[in-house]
Amino acid sequence: MRVAVIGAGIVGVTTAFELAQDGHAVTVFERRGSVAEETSFANAGVVAPGYVTPWAAPGMPAKVLKHLLSRHAPVRMAWPPAPGQLGWLWRWWRACRAPVFAANRAQMYRLARYSQQRLQALTQALQLEHEQAQGYLVLLRSAQDLAGARGSLKLLAELGVDFHLVDAARARQVEPGLNPSAPLHAAVHLPSDEVGNCRQFAQAMRAEAQRLGAVFQFQRQVLAITPGAAPVVQHRAAGGTAAPQADAFDAVVVCAALGSAALLRPLGLRLPLLAVHGFSLTAPLRVLEGHPHLGPQAGVMDEKYKVAISRLGQRVRVAGSAEVGGRLDVMAPAALSTLHKVLDDWFPGSAHLAQAQRWKGARPMLPDGPPVLGASGAPGVWLNLGHGSSGWALSCGSARVLADQLAGRAAAIDVSGLDVARLAR
Q: Is 245 part of a structural domain of the chain?
């Protein structure tokens, strides 16, 4: 089949690879100059299926309101509200009911676990290097943090996740670079989880997809999709004014993150996608004689501030804070302040912060949490989008599921509830 993939973030690139591996003639349309240039550019890099969970959780609205004015609030609400933001928040609030959360969390964990297995299989089979490091440590600063995490630990146990609740001494053995002066009550150690460079993996997947015959058309803006037995993609040079070109395919897969909503609206699909912005800073690690453990060995998460610190080769990435709505081109000083604080708390003096790269990305979030996978309902148009802050952790599994669905094969996991029909309820 001739298949068009719209979007070359981590989800679009892995989808292109899986489709090309299945023997399809794949063309990828991307408005930027390369892969993973937007939401996938500088994320935390964490692959921890047990911590892939919906934002829409019981008690979450109260937590957001409680911390709304806190200097280091994990979540901030942009003002004035973005178009559609109030409606999105209403749907998010309704999805916070315990039964809905439980179903969504199970779906996301199942997909994340499958995705991790697929990521590891591809990494091994294709001999890929993406600055991967094994292990993930969730830091609990106080007894109060541990008490607040009990519900999550219970869910991890129910899901069969490999984790260990350890004391501060053991946590410092796992991550010897942790600041010995920082208060630490306990930690959750997940030895089977990992961190890696999402953008580097996307670049490797692009090369592998091209080796299989996939064609990447960069600097191409998709203007419209005409569904049908031979769906048509209208596109032109990004930012250009020339007459658009039109190419017919046997199927079109939309992986265009926030841009998906505008493409699908004329087809009768009104997806409640909202930008939830995330922040990160990436800096070179210092090399000091006599101090071999500057920075993390792999990945840590500060549970109180919801900030991850990941080692990517000889660099450290600090990622976290969330801004609901807002503008991509306006950096939030308070969010960056939180990232600096958490890094200084746990790994003081570990990085050349004068050389830090600061980043803000617009993550395409659906109000209930899980992504949308499968047929759109419009003939010839398929969906793989809405992964929110978990695109890296869900990408490989989502891509394989989508390729199987397009081929008419049963997916390797249960994907009920991930189809677009759930958003109509």
A: yes
